[in-house]
């Protein structure tokens, strides 16, 4: 995650999804949400973070007008940073955030970078200890073979072992995944679901919510047993809401 992305179309979809999953229902049921930003320094050289036309699209008012209004104020205030998302209570009351920047991707020995990442994630675990649903928000998504643990580019990815630790604590996990241009998005989603199922065979369900406004991006949801039924219900209700035309939902449910 980079501060310059705050308030763009992807942010609108991201927070809309999180609000839908975590906010209290009519019966009072809610999930305490934790956010690990995977925050890195802003980069230049591309147009990421500039998809802002949604702010003037009246058709999107049906999705979440309050959210759209807050993000519009942040963008127009020309101070786009994740700290404002925390301060403005964009996400449900009680949400906790881990905002410490990831260790630098600068020159250092692999063993040092690995140790720093391990310590960084340990601090994130302490902050999110009491949460039911933990959102992981990296620049790119899940770890890839070309950027393994300890490599200079690993700071752009969530490590599978980090997901595993959260699942082992009986927490459900939502992971951001950016879609690349080297193949159809549906194929990328199917590949991601299959990879996660192979890595985490005992997870009750693994879902993908793909948001198609601006650059396509997917959010992979891995549920723990106690949250599974309700989280799937909330994804189903998302597809029937004003967000339905913007999200495509895919499921992989464990066979028992």
Properties at a glance:
256 residues, alpha/beta, 9 strands
| Structural class by helix and strand composition | alpha/beta
**Helicity range:** 25-40%
| Overall number of structural domains | 1
In spatial order, strands of the major sheet run 2-1-3-6-8-7-9
Could you explain the architecture of this structure?
The chain has a single domain (3-253), classed as Rossmann fold (3-Layer(aba) Sandwich), CATH 3.40.50. The chain is an alpha/beta fold. The chain has 7 helices and 9 strands; from the N terminus they run H-E-H-H-E-H-E-E-E-H-E-H-E-E-H-E. The longest helix has 18 residues, at 110-127.
Summarize the structure.
The longest helix is centred in the middle third of the chain and has 18 residues, at 110-127. Helix content is 36%, strand content 16%. It starts with 8 loop residues before the first helix and ends with a strand.
Topology:
Blueprint: H1 9-22, E1 33-36, H2 61-76, H3 82-87, E2 96-98, H4 110-127, E3 133-136, E4 141-142, E5 157-158, H5 160-168, E6 172-178, H6 185-199, E7 205-211, E8 217-222, H7 228-240, E9 247-253
Parallel strand pairs: 1-2, 1-3, 3-6, 4-5
Antiparallel strand pairs: 6-8, 7-8, 7-9
